[in-house]
UniProtKB/TrEMBL annotation:
InterPro entries: HAD-like_SerB (IPR050582), HAD-like_sf (IPR036412), HAD_sf (IPR023214), MobA-like_NTP_Trfase (IPR025877), Nucleotide-diphossugar_trans (IPR029044)
Catalytic activity: O-phospho-L-serine + H2O = L-serine + phosphate; O-phospho-D-serine + H2O = D-serine + phosphate
Name listed for the protein in its UniProt record: phosphoserine phosphatase
PANTHER family assigned: PHOSPHOSERINE PHOSPHATASE
């Protein structure tokens, strides 16, 4: 596996371009060029050539000294230095400008280049296409992970086997989020994800909580994903995060209103990892769970963004040893009924037509490698594995208007506190 990192905002704690512009008092020129590029009025290649034309008038040695002292994400640098043969920096920056900075990283670097004369850029000789670096390593049979945040990373991320958008310095470019598999907004989240990707086998006995929030909530009629339902002036997902404070590895699968969900979650849990279900319109929670479970820890705790679990039952759900499927007394309007064996300890079937005393509400704890790739609901991916242990909890999901009113009426008793 090869890890290819963008430089600006992914490894550095600030962008190189504004720093260079500020040093020589040309912020207005560079800002205007950047703005026109972001708006799509100037193609990226042309913008880069013009940028080099402006900055190339200043001493290369001074640029190198300036960038050599940039503050870095030291945890990311540590990962690179622990795996130097499998890490590569791919940056559009000119090699002569970043030579000192890259010497601090300890791995291979691919960059744009130029001829230098009298300590100035004389001629731009090459412009790096990051996607070419990805293709090169894939052609050698490598699984390629690309980590980046800017518009010029989008094609490389599209080509990569696994792509991670970073928002540790600024919000990732729209083009990047449109193709990313994951997004992280905190260095610890990125390091945790990199370690999981790097590991040949998952950490034994460890949990990843996968919260599925990609759906449109169409049956509820709120024109909003259910994770953003308002309860006591807070989005529901923030109340859920409150209950997950003891879980280190939390993943949130997003699709519809992804940015709004990400902002709501990171306000209270900045170290969450976000997983994209780009096909949310035509897939269900089963697909979201599968995507969230990839590269996770040994066990996945499956949780839906509309699931309300009684606060006294949370610990039983989160600390349970071994696999289970959560069932509760049937109370919702559009229930999936769970049929238990005579002992009441195992689920032997699911049905929408054959009523029973219990319904499948979630949550569940499953081995990561047993999570099925299905396009529909989670329970459809579990049918071939039945029987599975049942865990009886007080819980319900919010699918219809009647469920929503029931949730409003019972919210405080379920969530606990005052």
């Amino acid at each position: 596996m090869k890890f290819i990192f963008d430089l600006d905002g992914t490894i550095t704690r600030q962008e190189t371009l504004p720093l260079m512009a500020a040093r020589f008092g040309i912020e207005d020129q560079i800002d205007a060029l950047t703005e026109e590029t972001i708006r799509g009025n100037i193609p990226f290649i042309e913008s880069f050539i013009r940028r080099v034309g402006i900055l190339g008038q200043y001493p290369v040695s001074e640029m190198n000294r300036l960038l050599s002292g940039m503050e870095l994400f030291q945890g990311v640098v540590g990962f690179i230095q622990e795996n130097p043969d499998d890490c590569i920096i791919a940056t559009g920056n000119l090699g002569p400008w970043i030579e000192g900075l890259c010497a601090r990283l300890g791995c291979g670097v691919r960059c744009s280049d130029a001829n230098i004369a009298d300590d100035r850029v004389a001629k731009l000789t090459s412009i790096l296409r990051k996607e070419d670096v990805v293709r090169e390593w894939k052609a050698k049979g490598e699984t390629v992970v690309f980590v980046g945040d800017g518009n010029n990373d989008a094609e490389a991320m599209r080509e990569a086997d696994i792509s991670i958008a970073t928002g540790m310095v600024h919000w990732p470019a729209r083009s990047v989020l449109d193709v990313a598999d994951y997004a992280v907004f905190d260095e610890s989240a990125l390091l945790r994800l990199l370690a999981q990707l790097r590991a040949s086998t998952p950490s034994r006995g460890s949990n990843t909580l996968v919260l599925s929030c990609a759906g449109m909530g169409s049956r509820l009629g709120l024109n909003s994903t259910k994770a953003l339902m308002n309860f006591e002036d807070r989005p529901f997902v923030q109340w859920q995060m409150q209950g997950f404070s003891g879980i280190e590895d939390v993943r949130v699968v997003v699709g519809f209103q992804a940015k709004d969900v990400i902002l709501a979650v990171t306000a209270v849990r900045p170290d969450a990892v976000f997983v994209f279900n780009h096909d949310y319109f035509s897939t269900g929670t089963g697909c979201s769970l599968y995507l969230g479970a990839r590269h996770a820890n040994e066990y996945v705790i499956a949780w839906d963004g509309d699931l309300m679990v009684h606060h006294e039952d949370l610990a039983a759900c989160l600390d349970h040893d071994g696999e289970y499927l959560g069932v509760s007394e049937a109370v919702t309007e559009d229930a999936v009924f769970a049929h238990l064996d005579p002992t009441g300890h195992s689920i032997v079937g699911f049905s929408r037509e054959d009523p029973g005393a219990y319904e499948w509400s979630g949550p569940a704890r499953l081995r990561r490698d047993d999570v099925a790739d299905v396009r529909g609901s989670v329970f459809e991916g579990l049918l071939h594995r039945l029987p599975l242990p049942a865990l009886k909890v007080r819980a319900f999901d919010i699918d219809t208007v009647a469920d929503y009113h029931y949730a409003k009426e019972n919210f405080r008793s379920y969530i606990g506190g005052k």
